[in-house]
Amino acid sequence: MIEEVVLSAFNGHGFAASAQRAWAHRPHRERNRLFIGTIDRLNVASRRTALRAGRTAVLDYVFFPLEK
């Protein structure tokens, strides 16, 4: 498990997205490996960061209210 942590004083500078891009493209990474992660649907900041890093959402859970 790999996790990036950015001090709150440095939020908004793109450091987390840069870290994710660097980890995904590191030269010694095996070519046929999938870079995957799970982000809670309520963690909007992390979801935006993942998109900025170039990660694609492959599965979203969407719940619709049942009508009576």
Helix content: 25-40%
Query: What percentage of the residues does DSSP assign to strands (E)?
Result: under 5%
The count of strands amounts to: 0
Radius of gyration: 15 Å
Supply the number of structural domains. Answer: 1
Low-confidence stretches: none
Q: Count up the helices.
A: 2
Largest sheet: none
Q: What overall form do the CA principal axes indicate?
A: flat
Structural class: mainly alpha
**H and E order:** HH
Please sum up the structure shown.
By secondary structure, this protein is mostly helical.
What features would you describe in this structure?
The protein has 68 residues and is mainly α. The protein has one domain. The protein contains two helices and no strands. The protein is flat and about 55 Å long. The N and C termini lie far apart (43 Å). The model has no long low-confidence stretch (mean pLDDT 81).
Give keywords.
mainly alpha; 68 residues; 0% strand
Set down the secondary structure blueprint.
Layout: H1 15-24, H2 44-52
